[in-house]
Every structure is written in C-alpha cells, then in structure tokens.
Amino acid sequence: MVSMASSLGKKKKMSVADIVIIVFIVALSFTCIVPFLYMIALSLSSNEAIISQKVGLWPVGFTLETYKTILSDVEMLYTLGYSILLTVFYTVVGMFLTICGAYPLTKKRLMGRNFILSALVFTMYFSGGLIPSYILVKNLGMMNTVWSLVLPGAMSVFNLIILKTFFTNLPESLEESAAIDGCSDLGILMKIVLPLSLPSIATLSLFYAVDRWNGFQDALFYITDKNLYPMQMKLYQIISANQQLDSQQGGEGSAGSFIVPESLKAASVMFTTIPILLIYPKLQKYFVDGVMTGAIKG
Amino acid sequence: MKAVLEQDYASKKKKNKFLHNIKRDKWLFALLLLPLAYILIFRYAPIYGVVMAFQDYNIFAGIKRSEWVGMDVFQFIFQQDSFYRALKNTLLLNVYDLIAGFPAPIILAILLNEVRAAKFKKITQTVLYLPHFLSWVIIGGMVYLMFSNSGMVNTFLANLGLAKIEFLSQKVPWLMTYISVGVWQQIGWGTIIYLAAMTGINKELYEASDIDGCSRLRKVWHITLPGIKSTINILLILQIGRMVSIGFDRPFVMGNSLVSDYSDVISTFVYRVGISSGDFSQATAVGLFQSVVGLILLIGANYIAKKLGEDGIW
Fold it and tell me: I want to staple A219 with a disulfide (CB 3.0 to 4.6 A). Which of A51, A121, A233, B98 is the partner?
C-alpha cells in the first residue's frame, strides 16, 4: 500500500531528472528531423538564395522549379519505376529461397540438418570477399543485367535463421494432426505453416525490400548501363556531380558545364527518401518485431 | 562367416534406412534444393575463388589456367604503403565507432526505459529509428549539403560570428563528422535489442528496490545494467569480430579526394585496386586477409568472453 502510494505520487510530479531525460530525447529526435526540413527548404529555394547562404530551415525565394525539373525528367521517373519493380522482384526471389530453406531445417529428423545449418552459418562469418564475387558475377555473364542486382544478395542466411525461429515457435500439434490426416510436408507448409506465419513473412519481406532499395554497392560494381541504374546509383551521380569542385573552391557556384545546383541535389535526396518516409511509419512495428526475434535467437 | 553376414546385414539396413529417410522427406529435400544450390554458387564458389590470391590471376585464362605464384601476392601487398594506410584507417575508424557508437544506444535505451509517458516514447522512438532506413547515399547527400562550406551548419556558425569549419576536407572535422553521423544513424535502432532485453528484467526487483528507497541511478546500475549484460556482451563480441571489416558505402560516399588519407579503408582499397585497376589477385589477397583476421578476432573475442564466464555467440 505504501509503495503504491509512493509510486502514484511519483507519477504526478516530474523530477529534474525526468525533465533532463525528456529534453535530451527531444533534442536527439530533432537531429533526425532537421536534415529533412533543410532538404525541403533547399529544394524549394532559389539558387541565388542558396549561394548567398540565406537558406535555413525555411525556403527563401520560394520556387517549385526543381520539382518541376525532376517530375518532367523522364529518366528520373523511369528509374523510380524500375527501382520499385526491382525491389519487388528481389524481395519475391529472396523470400522464396528463404522459405524453401527455412522450413525443412525446422525438422529435427531431417538427415544432414546440422551439417547444412553449420554450412549456412559459416557463410555469415566468413566470405570470399568482394573480388571473387565480382569475378563470379562476370563469369556467369550477369554483368550489366538485372540478375546481378537480384541474385548475388538474394538469400540472407540471417533472415533464413530468423524465419526458422518463427516456424519453430508455431504450435507443433497443428502440423502433427495434418500429418496424421495424410498431408505431405509440402501440403503442411502451404496450408498450415505459411498462413500462420504471414506477419513474420511480411517482416522479412520488408528487410529484403529495404536492403534492395538502399543498395548501392552492387550497382556501382556490376552496372554501367544507365537504364539499369537503381535509384541510389542515380542519386549518387547527381550528388557527386561537381562535389569535388565545390569543396575545393569553397562552394562558390562556379560556372562549369556539369553543374548541378544544390536545390536540385536536395530535391533529388527528397525524391529518393519520400518512398521510405511514406511506408516507414506504418510498417515500423514489423521491423521492430523482426529485430526482436533475431535478438532472441542470439 | 557369421560375422561377415551380420556386417552385410547391418550395412544393408543402414542403406535401407538412408533410402527410407530420403523417401520420407522427399519434399523437404526438394525444398532445400534451390537454397542449397544458391549457397553453393553465391557463397561457397567465391570462397573457392580466394585461390586467386595465390595466383597471378588473368581474367582471360581464369582460375584453372592462371599461373600459381604462392605467397608472392601477399609479399607484394605487405610492402605497399597504401595497404597499410587502408588497414590503419579501417582499424582507426572502427575503434572510434566502437568507442562512440557502442555505448550510445545503451545509454539511450536506459534513458528511454526511464520515460513513462507511453505516447511520447512511441513517437520519439519512431523518429529515432528513421535514420537506420536511409541509405548511405541519401545520408551522404544530406551530409554534403549540410556540412559543406556553404551549408546550413557553416551558415549558422557564420551568423554567430564564428569561423568556418571545413567539415568535409580537413582531418579532424571530417573524422568527427564521419563518426557522429554513424552514431546518429545507428543510435535509435541499436536501442531495440537493449529495450527488448530490459522488458525481460523481473519487475519485482524494481519494486523491492523502491521499498528499500533506492535512487534511480542505483537501480540502473544494480538492476538494469546487469539485466542487459549478456546482450551487451554478445553485441560487443560481434563488433570486435568486425574490427577489420568495414562496410563499403559509408566510407565511399562520405570520403573524397581531400580526405583520402583518412577515409581510404580496406573496402574502398579493394574496389580501387580490384575493380577500377583490374589487379584482381592483389584485391583478392587483401579481401582474404580481412576475412581471415576477422574470423580469428571473432573466435578470440568469443573465447575470451567464455573464459570470463559470459555467454558467447556459440
């Protein structure tokens, strides 16, 4: 009774420590929002205002010109559509392989199960490195094809083990009764295990999708054909245009042939980020769930 | 005679059991076929590919017909200043990341755990997790626009009457930017595992310490921290195991020619030597060096953790 009263009392008044903690967390949260505000402000400001360093978190010399430029750029829209399709395709391939790999490995009776598991886990801690993978992609004739962006990273062993944990946690009795009814292993997977694991499958699909959407390195290594550039590669080219020039000359918008104005860079950053900002708040819960399962496994 | 017969019988039985197992689990093996083929081709074939490090690899001759040179490639690499520069930078950046980035999520998780307003907690967490979902290209673009000489931060400093800081082209400011952006990107997301571990702590411990009149700090020190100790250990082992390996995107996007003395790391070195210049053997050797040292570090850290009576990762 006494402790209840004291904890009730504590709830009402905020101590100095509480206020310090809240101020700190709010300040940290602001550092996650300010960059976006600045990008938006830059993208809506006139170039003169940006060059003369007048732009803070509010647009100066408001103009929609940069967004008009981006939205009327056929290449940019093409890359956006292509990246979305690529992400979906990659996610489907990755999930298919992951499900096919994870389910059999939940069965303790399976011959060679431990050997297969060890062989999988080993690849998490030891890899051949960038160059042998590069040579492999080259030898398989996948350079400058969509396959080079889909297959080399398609199945993540980490995700497979998370999914295996999900499957193992399903009630065993359901599978057993289906087996008694004469259901094959494939039937059990399709009719019982998969429908019950939809939330976890959604979570892992999101992991795959984010990896592909954010992936940049493989495109840099394997793709030289502009039509096959994913969004990140395109963005990198826009941002790195005249960057060296800028940092050497103190950011005075020097006139050259390949100058991309800062406002356009900022608008491109926003353009690439918006798809993530749109889906992220709704799906955040799934991401967190996925990490927690991964953590329990560890 | 009898013994031979028995042996024969036993081996037959073994064979039958083998066939029986395969027949019984035919669907399971069928399902495994593609994933295993995938792992063999895309994970184990590159591991076999490291033999290039012991060859004078010629892209037209391939692994089969390239000339074997033993340890020559390694000897050559270990004489290169640029290799030591990349190795040194990799270690340095990783050590800085460990010092600044490892405790940060633990501290934030403890602070978040102290917040009682559920709604406030939920909203700030959503915001704090966001940077984890941004690619390094996006972050690099933002950093460039914010920290360049004409960017927001320098504008702000100028308005305060302070001198410009060349965040992107001078050693110390660049290092600070690189490290703090890394902390910023991971601090929120890193808290999830610790917060999950904290929910596993027995509530009665806190209640009992309330009755004893323990201060908040003491509760954190004596209940919360011990409760997440094994999680801290595991993450520390994993991070130590990654001391010599470094992602490609972050140093590549954030580095530039003015800071390459500090930003050129093993991954960007391998890219430059291997893919840009086509010295496949050298780049493979550096990659193999990195993989082997990484594995040794991981095993070593795990061994030490176990010796100290902690949970390891295996």
Answer: A233
Residue A169 touches partner B, C-beta closer than 8 Å: no
Choose the weakest-confidence range: B14-18, B36-40, B285-289: B14-18
* B154 contacts in chain A (CB < 8 Å): 53
**Chain B residue with minimal CA distance to A11?**
B116
User: In chain A, what are the domains?
Assistant: 13-63 (no CATH), 72-297 (1.10.3720.10)
Chain B residue with CA closest to A237: the answer is B137
Write out pLDDT tens, residues B97-117. 999 999 999 999 999 999 988
| Whole-number pLDDT of residue B63 | 86
pLDDT one-digit tens code per residue, B262-292: 999 999 999 999 999 989 999 999 999 999 9
Record the tokens describing residue A119, joined without a space: 């062989």
Secondary-structure class of domain B73-307 per CATH: mainly alpha
pLDDT score at B136: 96
What does the alpha-carbon distance between residue A17 and residue B220 come to, in Å, rounded to a whole number?
A: 13
Residues of chain B with CATH 1.10.3720.10: 73-307
The ipTM estimated for the assembled molecules is: 0.88
Residues of B (260-299) whose Cβ lies below 8 Å from A: 267, 270-271, 274-275, 280, 283-284, 286-288, 290-291, 294-295, 298
| Tokens (6 digits) for B66 | 């390239």
Q: What tokens does B204 get? A: 């009665």
- B 77-106 residues inside an 8 A Cβ radius of A: none
10 Å CB burial of residue A61 (0-12, 13-18, 19+) is: middle
